[in-house]
Amino acid sequence: MTLSTALKTGDLSALPSRRDEDWRWTDLRGLLKVLPPASPQGRAWFWENPLSGTLDMTGGVVNGRGPTDLAVDAGEERFVGWRFMSATDATAHGAELWVDVGEGAKLTLIESYEGRGTGYVSDVAVNIRLGKDAIVERIIFADDDADAISVVTADVALAPGAKFAQTVLTSGARRQRIETRVRHPGAHAEVRLDGAYLLDAQRHADLTSVVTHGGLDGVTSQLTKGMVTDQARGVFQGRIVVEKGADQTDARMGHHALILSDKAEIDAKPELLIFADDVSCAHGNTIGALDDEVLFYAEQRGIPEAEAKAMLTVAFVCEVIERIGHEGARDAAAAWVVRKLGSEA
C-alpha cells in the first residue's frame, strides 16, 4: 500500500493507514478522502540558494515533470542539485529519480523539495545505486507547504567498499514522510543517516529508515535530532536489521528531540533486529524540554525568551549539521536551521 499506487490507480484503499504498523503515526487514508486532480505542467522558479553557483548541474522537476536520470561515471566527481517543485494548488503528482554512481566515483547530491503551491499531494521515489568504493553524500532540504501531503521514498543499494551519507532537514507539512531504505552489503561499506526536523504550527514530519546489513564488516551511524512546538508532531522510526552471517557489524542509532509546547507530540520507535552473534550495536532515544535554568540565565542577560529558545535549539541541532562532509553544503544547512528558527546565533 503506497501513495504512488493510489495516485496511479485512483484507488484510495491503496493508501497506507494507521492499521499498517510502519504508518500508524502518518495515516494517509484517514486524511485523504478524495484524490485531487493531476497536476498540470508548471513553470520553474529560480532557486535562491548559495550553492547554486558552485553546482556542476541542476535538475528541475516541476509538478512531477522533468529529468529522471543522473549518472556519475567511474572515477568521476560531481556536485549536483536536484529540485522537486510543487507549483500549483490542490493537485497531485508523482516523480522518480534514478541515480547511478560508478566504481570509485564521488557524488554530492543536494535535493530540495519546494512547495510553491498549496494543498498539493506529492510522491517522489529516489533510487540510488553505488558501485564499488563509490562515495555519495545526499543532503535534503524539505520546504513543503504547510497544507501539503508529501512522501519521499529512497531505495539505496551499496556495493562493497561504498560509502553513503545522508542528512535530511525538514520543516514538515500537513503530512510528510521521508523514508530511506538501505541495502548494506557489509564488506567494509559505510552508511551515515542523519536528520533534523524543526516543526511548528500543525506541521507533521515522519523520518523513517530501514538499514539491512547482509554481510560481514559493515558500519552504520545514525543521528536524528528534532524540535516540535505549538501543535506539531514529529515521528522517528529507525530500524537496523543485522541478518544472519552479518558478523562484525558496527551499528549505532540515536534520536534526541525537544518538545517546546504542551500540545506538541513526538513518536519515536528505534529498533535493532539482530540475527548475528559477533556484532557491536546500540541505540538511544531521549525526549525532553529546554533547560529552564539555562533559559533563565540567558534572560537575565537581556536575551528575550523567544530568541534564547531559538539559540539553544540551534546549538542542540548543530551536532547533526557538523557531520555534513561537504563544507558548502554544511554552511547552507547551518543557514537553513538559523532561518527556520529565526535566530542569529
Per the principal axes of the C-alpha atoms, what is the gross shape?
globular
Note poorly predicted spans: none
The main pleated sheet reads as: 9 strands, parallel
The strand order across the widest sheet is 1-3-5-7-9-11-13-15-17
What percent of residues adopt helix (DSSP H or I)?
10-25%
Report mean pLDDT, rounded to a whole number: 92
**N-end to C-end Cα span:** 43 Å
Order of helices and strands, N to C?
Answer: HEEEEEEEEEEEEEEEEEHHH
Number of strands: 17
Protein name: Iron-regulated ABC transporter permease protein SufD
GO biological process, one term: iron-sulfur cluster assembly
Pfam families: SUFBD_core
InterPro entries: Fe-S_cluster_assembly_SufBD, SUF_FeS_clus_asmbl_SufBD_core, SUF_FeS_clus_asmbl_SufBD_sf, SUF_FeS_clus_asmbl_SufD
Describe the structure.
The chain is mainly beta. The protein has one domain. The chain has four helices and 17 strands. The strands form two sheets. Strands 1-3-5-7-9-11-13-15-17 form a nine-stranded parallel β-sheet, with helices on one face. Strands 2-4-6-8-10-12-14-16 form an eight-stranded parallel β-sheet, with helices on one face. The chain is globular and about 55 Å long. This is Iron-regulated ABC transporter permease protein SufD. One of its GO terms (biological process) is iron-sulfur cluster assembly. InterPro entries: Fe-S_cluster_assembly_SufBD, SUF_FeS_clus_asmbl_SufBD_core, SUF_FeS_clus_asmbl_SufBD_sf, SUF_FeS_clus_asmbl_SufD. It comes from Caulobacter vibrioides OR37.
